[in-house]
Design brief:
The complex is a heterodimer of chains A (251) and B (255).
Chain A lengths: L3 E7 L12 H10 L4 E6 L1 H4 L4 H10 L6 E3 L10 H9 L6 E4 L11 H12 L3 E5 L19 H10 L5 E4 L3 H8 L6 E3 L8 H6 L7 E2 L9 H9 L5 H16 L1
Parallel strand pairs in A: 1-2, 2-3, 4-5, 5-6, 6-7, 7-8
Chain B lengths: L2 E6 L9 H14 L2 E6 L12 H17 L4 E6 L6 H13 L4 E4 L11 H10 L2 E4 L4 H4 L8 H10 L5 E3 L2 H12 L5 E4 L9 H9 L4 E2 L9 H9 L5 H16 L3
Helix pairs in contact in B: 2-3, 3-4, 6-7, 7-8
Classes of the chains: A alpha/beta (251), B alpha/beta (255).
Chain lengths: 251, 255
């Protein structure tokens, strides 16, 4: 089975003993786990005053790694978001951008986000909303960060129906709440878990709305693979979740 | 690969499947190579402070599983230490007579509380293992009834002859591992939250491979994911086998 990973990162996360990946080491690591392609964003963009330098480095260093699809991070709360988006979207490999609302200190009702969403639609770009990066109970003790609440995401989705959105980092219960009400929403499986994760979700959510995601290097890559490869579900549905849905969403 | 799962709740009301669901869960575990499971009971079925009658129902369910799956299920007796010495001793005696091998504590109280003394004394007397719910309270801030790893260390130092499993490595984190490092009677299970990378390796480096045990927390968690925390870790095959199987086998004195 081909795996197309919706959620991976290069760089270093300072609050855990995670691996620090360059594009080369990330590509090799993913290959070891049978993952041929992945969306990748730069961790350096999370805490930097602006994401520009991290995006620039991501685009430069992922050249030559065909399996890595760069996903720049944009901060619409900064005055230069349009300039940043224009510069990064000039690279034909960029099909989607990622936002980190809580890490960049804004809510999804931020006025600039309307214009930002319209611009993404105009440019035929997709949006990944990073709901959480880690379990909020394990955030660094000096940080007070909560994930994006499902209700806030629901409101955003309701008012931006033309924008293709992938929600990354939703819990199982949050996927069940959101996906059934927003038929065009894609949800990645990085944080979703139950004893029979995939059949459990498929009982209420169509397979076309779920995408494989390892959230490397935060989470154990093999665990994400195992979630899919051991699921007792029709092979065609698993193929869609493993790669087909993300492929379709990007093109 | 063979495994023993030290942390499961085969009957869980949130799962809405009752005893029939437990049979399916055990079959699913066996399909993953898990030959033996520790059943901890439906610990939050009646809230965080169950009555004596409610505890009996929970432990009766566990006993039903032990009888239905002999040689596959080890039962741990769920207790509420705040009910007092008489009630605690009564339930321990009842469960020990039925072949339970350990005690399970959830969030009725903090493990450092004085009400722990009767059950710890009984645990020592009967050679029972204690599985203590634990999670870092840095963000949760419910330490009056939730047990932090530091509290597990306090308990372990007070009762050095009782073997304690500190639940939820991922919830306890690096600080939790360090908190119990100097307590040789404490081992850690690998359950808790999403499978955060690097933690199992860190626990092995700090505690040694003998003090880390595989646990899933199923049905809240997926066996495949829980096992991959170990098999996907940067650990040699011998260390993985200890964590998945051998350490629990020795702790529970299984054949």
């Amino acid at each position: 089975m081909n795996y197309f990973d919706a959620n991976t990162w290069t760089g270093r996360w300072p609050f855990a003993f995670n691996e620090e990946h360059s594009p080369r080491s990330l590509a090799a690591h993913l290959r070891q786990h049978g993952i041929g392609r992945a969306l990748v964003s730069p961790l350096d963009a999370v805490f930097a005053p602006g994401p520009g330098p991290a995006n620039l480095k991501l685009l430069r260093t992922t050249e030559g790694f065909a399996g890595l699809v760069p996903v720049p991070v944009i901060n619409p709360a900064l005055a230069n978001w349009r300039e940043e988006l224009t510069a990064r979207a000039a690279d034909p490999r960029v099909r989607a951008v990622r936002i980190l609302p809580r890490y960049h200190n804004y809510r999804l009702n931020l006025p600039a986000l309307r214009e930002f969403a319209d611009e993404l639609v105009r440019r035929k770009l997709r949006l990944i909303v990073q709901v959480r990066l880690i379990d909020e109970r394990h955030e660094f003790h000096a940080m007070n960060l909560k994930p994006v609440p499902p209700a806030e995401l629901r409101t955003f989705l309701t008012f931006r129906p033309k924008l293709p959105v992938l929600a990354s980092g939703l819990l199982r219960s949050e996927i069940l709440t959101l996906a059934s009400k927003h038929a065009d929403l894609l949800a990645d499986l990085s944080f979703a878990e139950w004893h029979d994760t995939i059949p459990h979700l498929l009982a209420e959510v169509p397979a076309r709305q779920l995408v494989f995601a390892s959230h490397t290097p935060f989470l154990v890559t093999a665990a994400a693979r195992a979630k899919i490869s051991t699921a007792q579900v029709a092979a065609a549905k698993l193929r869609r979740i493993a790669s087909g849905n993300l492929e379709r969403w990007l093109h | 690969m063979r495994a023993i799962d030290i942390h499961t709740h085969p009957i869980l009301r949130d799962d809405h499947r009752g005893r029939g669901g437990a049979d399916q869960l055990i079959q699913r575990a066996q399909a993953h190579g898990i030959r033996h499971l520790v059943a901890l009971g439906d610990v939050l079925a009646y809230g965080r402070s169950p009555t004596e009658a409610q505890l009996r129902k929970i432990n009766d369910d566990t006993y039903w599983l032990m009888q239905r799956h002999p040689g596959v299920i080890t039962g741990f007796c769920h207790l509420n230490p705040t009910l007092g010495e008489r009630a605690v001793r009564r339930e321990i005696e009842r469960c020990v007579a039925r072949g339970f091998r350990g005690l399970k504590l959830e969030i009725a109280n903090n493990a450092r509380d004085a009400c722990m003394r009767p059950l710890m004394t009984a645990a020592q007397q009967h050679g029972l293992v204690l599985l203590q719910h634990a999670w870092s309270m840095t963000k949760i801030r419910q330490r009056s009834f939730h047990t932090d790893p530091e509290d597990v260390a306090t308990l372990a130092n007070r009762f050095p002859n009782v073997r304690i499993i500190m639940a939820h490595l991922t919830g306890c984190g690096v600080r939790g591992v360090l908190a119990v490092k100097s307590c040789p009677n404490v081992v850690v299970d690998t359950s808790g939250a999403a499978p955060e990378a690097g933690l199992v390796e860190y626990a092995v480096a700090q505690l040694g491979s003998e003090r880390v045990l595989y646990g899933s927390d199923a049905p809240i968690r997926d066996f495949a994911v829980a096992l991959a925390r170990i098999t996907g870790a940067r650990l040699d095959a011998q260390t993985q086998q200890k964590i998945l199987h051998d350490n629990a086998r020795a702790l529970l004195r299984l054949p």
